[in-house]
Amino acid sequence: RQIRPALIMAALVITGPSALAQRRGTFAKGHASGARPARAARLASTPRTRPESTRASASGGTTIGADEMAKDASSAEPLIGINPDRVPMVEAVNRGETSGKFNWTKQWYPVAVIDLLDTSKPHPTQLLGKDIVVWKDGAGKWNVFEDKCPHRLAPLSEGRVEDDGTLLCAYHAWRFDGDGKCTDMPQASSKEEEDRVRANPRSCAFTRPCMEAQGLVWAWGEGGKEAELEARMTPPLVVPEIEGVGKNGEAPGGAYRNHWQVRDMPYGWAAFFENAIDPAHAVVSHHTLVGSRYDDPAGFNCVVERPMTAEAGFRCAIDPAVPPFNTIGKYDAETSYDFQPPCLLKIDWRHEEARFLTSHYCVPTRPGWCRHFVATVCQRGEGEKVRQHRWFKLNLFTLTSPAWMTHVLGPTFLHQDMVLLHQQEKIIAQGDGQDIANRWKDEVFIPTSADKMTVMFYQWFGRNGPIPWDGRDGDAMPPIERDQSKLFDTWEMHTKYCTHCQGALRNTEALKVIAAAAAAWKAVWATCLLAFGASAAGAAAGAGVTPSLGDVIAAVDPSLVGEVFSALSLAGTAYGLHGFAGMFRSYPFSHAEEDIVMEGTAKIGLSNDGPSLYIDVVDNLLFGGNKHAGKKCAVGCECGKCSPFHDGIRSKPLVAFRKKQESARAAKEAGTPAR
Question: Is the model's pLDDT at 25 over the cut of 50?
Fold first, then answer.
């Protein structure tokens, strides 16, 4: 496998040549001589219990019983994690005042990141199988239309945003304003005819209710006469902690948020949530980036914090919060996973000195594909112990990175999952993507409670799915993509619609050309110096006498060595820039091979507890002093100061669960005769 030159250079800076020479050494191979024995010793010394309802089965399917799924739900809070704007709707469902069936089309979905879009062009995407187009009109408002002109159904995304702020169809030059009304029809024979035809509702574009919130463009799941009213009565799934923040920067309450990342992924909505809601895969699939596949896997309980409902999904805490959220044996932070349909997953990490809230939105675009948005917000308390915490270090690193750097490095993480999920869902579906929830529970083997949240997700999806696809692709699951150039195509999945990355790519290409040209000039000049020296040595030796190599070297200008070094350095820089530019277009990955970027990241030490000068500097820069003191949090914030459902970092359902465990343990010990 070809290793990208830019990444080699980066890893050399990070790790040094000697570390790279040991690529197949202890960490990359999982401490072959020590990791497995160490883990075996840890497992032998740790009591491993399994609920009686969890039984292994040779016939496949989930083996987690219904009693295990529901035993701690009685302690759950039905509104924990819910945005206050959505509380009345959730309460109405809980009271049985609605049908209790989830309606996929009467929901808000994020479709684009405003900061990344080129305002001079229309942008195509898909939602629930339907082609839509996102564009900005002359009034500065973002709009979402179905991607078809009412005239002859040509795609409006192939049109133009004109200087007057209208969207022009490139087929017959019909123009539309932000409300979808036709403003110009060049084929009309007279103004009277044009006015008459434009007055017909059929001349209007097919609009969707849309809105702008927390730096995203949101679209309603359907069009039609009642859509606008229904949309205005339904609050979107915004996250209070980052509400009102567009680009990266200060968030409510003195918090700080990184840039939105967005990417089209070649696997479906269900595959995304099955994976994202599964803590156990992180240190295995994301080996070296967030932990070690050999040292860090561990068992845990999933504690229901919010019981499952159609409208509100569910929320669980993991107990204990195993790696990457903590280091094994040092469980000083807690983590919850909050799934809210149709598209939000919040991963809430809490430490007594800091909180990281990562918000994932996954939008079902078409069968076998989804659009993924993610942003992380950090709320900081007092103290410096958290600076050495692995999860704090990993996340703080992203807060100050420029958008293009965060985006171009995204595939180093996302492709570790993608190479698995793209095939897994198709193996399960066996051609029938609409029945994947039922096929999943029959095909897989779930012998431990670590998979409880994934089981809960497919229970929810089985009751409230399938996704009602409506578009030209139908509901058929696409085949497995065997062409790596297509599967790992970062240009199509992100770069082509991100202005930050397009600008970074142009600058990288320009620097590459400059470096290559400078290297060529230095090489030519070095050749000339050598020729001049040889000529001078020949002249000094006299006619018919061949000068010795020593004479030539002595006659050469001393600057030749520097010129040769400069030529080689510039050539290496150009080659490295060429490799870095390639990451904006493609980033192939294989778990069977070592990856120098991952190993270089591991050597920085972000995936392990310990001090880091870089983290100290960034933390002081963002949160040092009292510059955030007294700033109010957003309404609905769930930090320890604001949330009625938390006692410091601990949620009340998790505290109740632990008390039940302690009581049961004490009762069992009291009733057991001494040996």
Answer: no
Whole-number Å distance between alpha carbons of 263 and 498? 10
Cβ(227)–Cβ(209) below 8 Å: yes
Burial of 447 (0-12, 13-18, 19+ CB in 10 A): middle
CA 604/CA 19 separation, integer angstroms: 12
50: pLDDT strictly greater than 50? no
Q: Look at the pTM and tell me if it is higher than 0.70.
A: yes
- Distance between CA atoms of 467 and 450, rounded to whole angstroms? 27
Q: Is 125 helix (H, G, I), strand (E, B) or coil?
A: strand
DSSP code string of 591-660: TTS--HHHHHHHHHTTTSSS--HHHHHHHHHHH-TTTTTTPPPPTT--STTT-TTEETTEEHHHHHHHHH
* 25-34, 206-215, 484-493: segment of lowest average pLDDT: 25-34
Tokens 């109010």 belong to 632
As given in the structure block, the two tokens for residue 235 are 């609050």
* Phi, psi dihedrals of residue 75, rounded to the nearest 5°: -90, -5
Supply the pLDDT for residue 542.
78
Q: Averaged over 19-47, what is the pLDDT?
A: 40
Q: State the Cα–Cα distance between residues 296 and 294, nearest whole angstrom.
A: 6
- Distance of alpha carbon 45 from alpha carbon 36, whole angstroms: 14
The residues, any chain, with a CB within 8 Å of residue 586's CB and separated by 6 or more, are 485, 488, 489, 490, 491
pLDDT of residue 468: 94
State the number of CA atoms in the 13 A half-sphere of 182 facing the CB: 26
* Single-letter amino acid, residue 35: A
Give the integer Cα–Cα distance in Å for 334 and 352. 10
Residue 212 has pLDDT above 50, yes or no: yes
> Which single residue is written with the structure tokens 């409902």?
309
DSSP for 171-182, please give it: TT--EE-TTS-E
Q: Given pLDDT bands bounded at 50, 70 and 90, which one contains residue 94?
A: confident
In the predicted structure, residue 74 carries a pLDDT above the cut 50: yes
pLDDT at 166: 97
**DSSP one-letter string for 363-409:** EEEETTEEEEEEEEEEEE-S-SGGGG-HHHHHHHHHHSS-HHHHHHH
Radius of gyration (C-alpha) of the chain in whole angstroms: 29
Q: Is 70 exceeded by the pLDDT of residue 595?
A: no
- Strand pairing partners for 256? 250, 378
